[in-house]
Amino acid sequence: MNNVETYLESRLPEMKSLLEQLVNIDSGSFHKEGVDKVGTLIRKQFEDLGMNVKVHRESKYGNHLEIMHDHDSQPKIIIIAHMDTVFPAGEVKKRPYKVIGNKAYGPGVSDEKASHVAVLFALKALKASGSDAYKNVHIIFNSDEEIGSPTSKAIIKEAAKQKDYSLVVESGRPNDGIVTERKGVGCFVFEVKGKSAHAGVEPESGRSAIEELAHKIIKLQKLNDYETGLSVNVGLIEGGISTNTIPSNATAHVDVRVKNMKQAEEITSKINEIAHEEYVSGTETKLSGKIDRPPMEKVEGTEELLHIIRSVGEELGMSIREVSSGGGSDASYTSTEGIPTVDGMGPLGEFSHSETNEYVDLSSLSKRTALLALTIERLSRAKQ
Q1: Which residue of 11, 15, 299, 339 has the lowest C-beta tally within 10 Å?
Q2: Which of 58, 145, 212, 358 is catalytic?
Q3: Any idea where the domains of the chain sit in the sequence?
């Protein structure tokens, strides 16, 4: 066992204690007060480590944190973590942090508060071992990842400039999986306008927005091509005012997942075609939305980065495997900048966003933190 592993094993009680504190703070994307409370706790921990923390203040969502060793440093590794969860205020009261066997449960425990602990203690372990590699990181803790990073996207892209590697710390996958590819995510909204009329007295004078939308929904669902990684889901519809009224309005919200940018361009074009087709004469359709989180694709250097992580894993007795994910993350914003990027570098966990089953494997906490720490050290040496 090396110095980093020894240090982390000795700090496990502290790591678990911090994890409990973080999970027991409600920090849904729209709960600014809670996210900022998490941010305050994280900020203190990193400042105590001697790191410089810049706070990007936001009015609507939580504040973002940008962390480096000092103002003049030029780190070559960007690490991205998010403080927000998908759960509303009050969730912690219903189901606070709890441990059953080797698994810890609670809102956001895997997605991704265990990763906050891992990033902090990875740097602590490096510093304690005498390695300066902890100075070679530029860390972003953002507050709005779960809703597409609307206010932090620009901060991430700016921080990513001139970086050699990007490590994103969503939870690791079972059996030591890390993520090398993710789908891009888009949301489109169809708003159909028709003409209302009494359904019994003069139905022929109406123009049903729901009927028009129904035709479009069938066409949209037929766009699915799971074998190529394309999924289109009309997940929410609404319309009309009563059963005896020809509906003058109808709306559909459509979730789209794409494997690559070529697919994103093609599906956007097809969705626009469907929006502009008219099935019920006299109706009009307004389309809004786009692919707003691009796919995370492998770029030049990704395989080299993966090789280094696998090598570090072998030294720790781990067999690292690569996986792809249908979910989006901030990893897409660094990969599209051409930076070799891997995701899933956090402790192992499953069932993110679940109201009952989300957990993190506590037996992986020190080992996966060691993987992160020693990867940072190895990457720092690789560029010297």
Answers
A1: 299
A2: 145
A3: 3-182+295-382, 184-293
